[in-house]
Amino acid sequence: MNRTWLVASLLTTAVAFGQGREGIRGELRGAPPAVAGRAGVPPQPWLGSAPKPAIANARPVRSCESLATVALPNTTIESAALDPANPAICRVTAVTTHPPAGDKVRIWIGIPTANWNGRFLGVGGGGFVGGSPASVDQPLALGYASGSTDTGHEGGSGSFALDAAGRLNWQLIRDNAHVGIHVMTLAGKALTQVMYGTAPRYSYFAGCSTGGRQGLMEAQRYPQDYNGIVSGAPAINWARFIPQELWGAVQMNATGNPLPACKLAAATAAAIAACDGIDGVKDGVIEDPKRCTYDPEPLIGSSAGDCGSFTKVDVDLIRKFWQGPQREDGSFLWYGQARGADLTALYGSRGTPLKPQAFGIALDWLRYFLAQDPRLDWTTIKPADWEHFWDQSTEQYGIVIGTDNPDLTGFRDRGGKAILWHGWADQLITAEGTIDYYKRVTQQMGGPKKTSEFARLFLAPGVAHCGGGPGPSPYGQLDALVSWVEQGKAPETLTAARRDQAGAITRSRPLCQYPLVARHKGTGTTDAAANFVCRAGF
User: Fold this and answer.
1) In this structure, what CATH number is given to the domain that contains residue 466?
2) Which of 160, 368, 393, 433 sits 20 to 30 Å CA-CA off 484?
3) What's the CA gap between 279 and 356, in Å, rounded?
4) Do 165 and 71 share a structural domain?
């Protein structure tokens, strides 16, 4: 496995799911920094370039400091001041409450004091983290007024779900699920309007993972908030895929067969070797994992290096990881990891003796939201117990945080546009869940042609969670969205590239509008996007 890819993938995973560097220190020991930006915020390649001003000659009509006196419903402006490091930026911190709940949704708004481009951009978070004050920095550099929020709680733990008495705190759960982003949006646009004397002409939202879910939640519940949304690797099926992230560890415990990372990596490499050429191009990437039917049975008895030889139990587990969770009667529950995705992120084992490791967010979901017992020992959970928790998760929380309502009529009717994208090698949230949602949207909204007039899905072969992986990752999604919303130029493709350590592009590809796939024209290098065309299949 390429170490640069692994490092980038782990960092992306940690930031996207709110874990931070400390949670993955062991995996990254000795690795060079792979993130940039204030407070560890990773680069945001979806941003693209600075757009032309949407409002000509916009000038502030009042000072930054005066925003501290603005009255907003149930909101306290804690501070409004010029950034000491950059006086061209006004930073506002506010807190919104919902009496009598006593919650506190902290909001961070940044507004340019000059060269405002006439737009507002909401930025999402990751995992249980609603967002961060540093998330607005890069949008501000491009001239956007921008906002983010903690959605009612600090940090990346799921412990906010329980109050001091150990009962479910439904206001904080709703704040994190959807209310927090909405009130941030209202406050951010209102403060921008007060400062400039005119409302933002266009408003956009962008995020990946939880941020992708937050964007689609806005389209479903608050369609008036944004003109356009970029939703990457959206965590829209939260109540389903989060229990799925714990399912593999439960299966390994049940069989008494923890799988070491080298066996999981060897199985992934074998699948890639078997299916890499399906698209006619050998590049270390499975272009369409749904067409890959590789079965790991031939691995039995073969060596996985220091891990020893594959056993039948090993192979049966790996097959289950790809197949996805089922009920004990064999019926489908949810999708498994795509062949080609890094299995170690969810199904790894560590320690001496080797033990399965539960993914942190899934474990928090189990302890705080489902069992309501912070001290629950997950290793005591049997497959039948897990199945009961699955049912509880979907029944109790699907309507709160599910974000899979396919009816986007309100968003469409007011001219909203949405770009969805997902990496096929996503190791945390399977792309098939997003495909499932998009198919239901097309059924609800009048078919593929009518749906593509306002919402389009793009799949990125070989791309891990929110970026990284052996495949070219998309960039400039916001540029494509702005062009679509403001000029009516719907994106036929997204641009994607893989870069070396110096940032130079080593491979580029077009990402095609689903269900089309990129096919090589038959001439020219397979590392250049210009030599590929979108077609209906291989």
Assistant:
1) 3.40.50.1820
2) 433
3) 35
4) yes
Q: Catalytic: 465?
A: yes
**Residue 272 domain flag:** yes
For residue 283, indicate whether it is catalytic.
no
What's residue 537's pLDDT? 74
Question: Which one of the listed residues 178, 182, 422, 465 is annotated catalytic?
Answer: 465
Residues 6+ apart with CB under 8 A from 211: 123, 124, 125, 126, 131, 231, 232
Residues 223 and 262 in one domain: no
C-alpha dihedral over 94, 54, 178, 81, to 10 degrees?
Answer: -10
Is the bond preceding residue 515 a cis peptide, omega within 30 degrees? yes
- pLDDT tens string 437-466: 999 999 999 999 999 999 999 999 999 999
pLDDT at 136: 96
Catalytic-labelled residue, pool 135, 146, 148, 209: 209
Domain that holds residue 79: 38-238+402-491
Res 208 pLDDT > 90: yes
Task: Report whether 119 contacts 136 (CB < 8 A).
Answer: no
Q: Is 194 among the domain residues?
A: yes
Which one of 314, 426, 436, 479 is the catalytic residue?
Answer: 426
Q: In this structure, are 307 and 187 located in the same domain? A: no
Confidence of residue 40 (pLDDT cuts 50, 70, 90): very low
